[in-house]
TrEMBL record, chains A, B:
GO terms for cellular component: cytoplasm. This is Transcriptional regulator MntR. PROSITE patterns: HTH_DTXR (PS50944). Homodimer. GO terms for molecular function: DNA binding; DNA-binding transcription factor activity; protein dimerization activity; transition metal ion binding.
Amino acid sequence: MQSFTEENYLKTIYYLANRQQGEVSTNALAEMTATKAASVTDMLRKLADKQLIHYKKYQGVRLTEEGERLALQIIRRHRLWEVFLVDKLGFRWDQVHEMAEELEHIRSEELVERLDTFLGHPQFDPHGDPIPTPAGQMPVTGYQKLSEVVVGEPVQLMGVLEHSTEFLQHLDRSNLTLGCTVVVQEVNTFDRSVLVQLVGDRTVFISYEVAKNLLVNQPAG
Amino acid sequence: MQSFTEENYLKTIYYLANRQQGEVSTNALAEMTATKAASVTDMLRKLADKQLIHYKKYQGVRLTEEGERLALQIIRRHRLWEVFLVDKLGFRWDQVHEMAEELEHIRSEELVERLDTFLGHPQFDPHGDPIPTPAGQMPVTGYQKLSEVVVGEPVQLMGVLEHSTEFLQHLDRSNLTLGCTVVVQEVNTFDRSVLVQLVGDRTVFISYEVAKNLLVNQPAG
DNA sequence: CTAAAAATTTAGACTTGTCTAAATTTTTAT
DNA sequence: ATAAAAATTTAGACAAGTCTAAATTTTTAG
Ligand SMILES: [Mn+2]
Ligand SMILES: [Mn+2]
Ligand SMILES: [Mn+2]
Ligand SMILES: [Mn+2]
């Protein structure tokens, strides 16, 4: 049984490992968890003792199989609670992350599985992130960033890489919602901003900063 | 902002104060929280510093107005989550207490109020306990114990005083569900056990140990 | 290759909530 | 009324998780 803190470290290691190559560094963890490197080192020793991470001093860290299984379980809980908060309680997608940060630590296998059933076995959370399976597998999605899409290709908005309230509210104000279809009309080489056609709606200007945080999917075909 | 531990102490003080007269003792708190008296003393000093309790050394403890408001807020959350677990997720009434012990500490005013709305503003939890108002008022119920009901009076089963899994499952096995109407047919003076007629069903034998933990209401009239 | 910079770990300390053992206060019983 | 018992508090300690400052190791640059 892990503490809240240990669970948060596991989850953070998982995220960092999946957005760089190779081992996760002490400093990266310190920044992400808003603590100091010395504190991270202490925790890494503890997680290594519990066989949840592979850890060699000065060499960075990697989850063990068991550690990854636990991390995915926590992410599953987080994302299911986010679906609950949006679908059932009517929160907006920019309001739910902090509450899910607490709810994800509620410990009961049966609670999570009943919640999953109650929600209709959703595949994605309100931000388009895939929900890991009960067995601890992360579904793979073949999404690419909107910033990499070529002119003329109709694509569907499937997810976001940035989860801050500010970013999500900015998307709302731009009428960009998950599932909507867009066509890139123009890419400015100077600042890499793009002009997109919201199918059945208006045209929207999207900065590179925003475009590189939007995930899209080619519609079938 | 209080820690989980502080919240649990406040809740426990509230419960103990409402089932005895006057001040709550250090030992009673130690037993209820499964800690030692010395630990309780330390916490009482902290809660007194925060003005959540009235505390004089050796003289027992009493909630301040603010302390009571917080205690009732926590009890409100606990009971609403229990309703959610039973009504929405389909748990049995004997399965939900432990999960609610964790869920009650999730901090978000808006979450609780949206949950309340989602559940249809329930007045009672799955054990018949009244749900405190958002403003922190505990509704009063004029229930009496089944052990005090006289022969011949039809009464309705409204709540339980004991919440253990064993007790609740025992009631299930006896076909005693909240809301059912019963008539006491016989009271054995020797052991105070009672024989009751389950209206529209069979006759059930109820020991004093069980009867004194069942709360009933006179049906209108 | 080697010295400076950067990253990481170690040492020692603090906070929260807990404990045991000892001291103190209150209650109970003769 | 007073001694014994019971309840409570104090003293000193510990584990978890954090911090700052100092020491160590690795990386980077010249
Ligand atoms: Mn989130
Ligand atoms: Mn999410
Ligand atoms: Mn309960
Ligand atoms: Mn209850």
